[in-house]
């Protein structure tokens, strides 16, 4: 099995350079918090910041971003809005994932004790095909009033993502993989995805494999979520299920998501929201983006710095209960960040 997203070689002094795409809405303020927390934790990472204007339909900013990630191997990003009037402009978020062939998205949905949530003790891995399916962006109006949209499922990408899921389950001692689909209706596309999942599952006899229709899956997630361990699905079901499971453990402000391909990796908040309505008000929850930065440090092999920040986040939200309004609290974003920095400075471990 080929190694997905190889770790870039560190530069002089063991430092890494990483591409930072702040994006729109709350993205830029969340990135400032990441930079602050990295400064106090001594994380050996330098950021190359590439801004993308939501109103522009120029390709050059997008190209700069892609070149930068190709050079650095790793990126951290907020959601990039596309507000151009012309319908010909495709989503830059999708373009980046496709251009870098980031074929798998991984969301580890784990409850934080002490954070108000609909369900307790959740520990679900949502693994999602990240570059095709309904996100092929092949839509056209065939005759006036009739729009057709293509859902693309390929054997190659279905195999890659299924392999990734089962390898992950094996390495992390997970017991069960559930394939989510609608193969009873989309017999060819979802049928192929399911068939390939069943084929790959046979190579992992120690891991239980089952499958579930997407509509039943949504109901089961809300009523009996503890039956799920590792879940694997195509792109659109993936975004919906990710949002459901994030909602179960405390909303859009907590969890991070990881995008991997054979060459590059991008880290971002799990539900990929722009947060336009809450931007600039000092109320956005900084935790999801900080968790993305922890994932990035782990990926780069900076384990000690990752653990330092991770444990400061846990103390802040689980013990001190310094919570922004999305978690039912009254704290400002900056108060959460300050408390996290306080815990970093208090830690006995000095990692630099
Ligand atoms: P998008 O603009 O991508 O459609 P929204 O901004 O509508 O997404 O986000 C969906 C919901 O999640 C909104 O209610 C938003 O306030 C909330 N949300 C997203 N990110 C955060 C965050 N970091 N902290 C608090 N709330 C958030
Ligand atoms: Mg939206």
Automatic annotation (TrEMBL):
It is found in: Mitochondrion. GO terms for cellular component: mitochondrion. InterPro entries: Isocitrate_DH_NAD, IsoPropMal-DH-like_dom. Keywords: Mitochondrion, Transit peptide, Tricarboxylic acid cycle. One of its GO terms (biological process) is tricarboxylic acid cycle. Residues 17-340 form the Isopropylmalate dehydrogenase-like domain. It comes from the Eukaryota. Belongs to the isocitrate and isopropylmalate dehydrogenases family. This is Isocitrate dehydrogenase [NAD] subunit gamma, mitochondrial.
């Amino acid at each position: 099995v080929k190694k997905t997203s190889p770790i870039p070689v560190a530069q002089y002094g063991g430092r890494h350079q990483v591409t930072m795409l702040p994006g729109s809405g709350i993205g830029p303020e969340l990135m400032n918090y990441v930079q602050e927390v990295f400064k106090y934790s001594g994380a050996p990472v330098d950021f190359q910041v590439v801004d993308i204007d939501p109103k522009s339909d120029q390709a050059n900013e997008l190209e700069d971003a892609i070149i930068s990630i190709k050079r650095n191997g790793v990126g951290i990003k907020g959601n990039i809005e596309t507000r151009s009037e012309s319908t010909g402009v495709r989503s830059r978020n999708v373009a980046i994932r496709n251009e870098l062939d980031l074929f798998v998205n991984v969301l580890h949905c784990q409850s934080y004790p002490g954070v108000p949530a609909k369900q307790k003790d959740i520990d679900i891995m949502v693994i999602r095909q990240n570059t095709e399916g309904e996100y092929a962006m092949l839509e056209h109006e065939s005759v006036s009033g009739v729009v057709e949209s293509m859902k693309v499922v390929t054997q190659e990408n279905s195999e890659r993502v299924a392999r990734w899921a089962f390898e992950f389950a094996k390495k992390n001692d997970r017991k069960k993989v559930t394939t989510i689909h609608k193969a009873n209706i989309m017999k060819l596309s979802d049928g192929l995805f399911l068939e390939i999942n069943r084929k790959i599952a046979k190579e992992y006899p120690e891991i239980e494999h089952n499958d579930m229709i997407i509509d039943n899956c949504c109901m089961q997630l809300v009523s009996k979520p503890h039956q799920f361990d590792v879940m694997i699905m195509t792109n659109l079901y993936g975004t919906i299920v990710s949002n459901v499971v994030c909602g179960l453990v405390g909303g859009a402000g907590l969890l991070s998501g990881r995008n991997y391909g054979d060459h590059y990796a991008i880290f971002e908040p799990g539900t990929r929201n722009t947060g336009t309505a809450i931007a600039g008000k000092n109320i956005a929850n900084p935790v999801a983006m900080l968790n993305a930065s922890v994932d990035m440090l782990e990926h780069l092999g900076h384990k000690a710095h990752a653990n330092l920040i991770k444990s400061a986040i846990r103390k802040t939200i689980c013990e001190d209960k310094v919570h922004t309004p999305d978690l039912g609290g009254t704290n400002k974003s900056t108060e959460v960040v300050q408390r996290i920095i306080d815990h970093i400075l208090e830690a006995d471990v000095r990692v630099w």
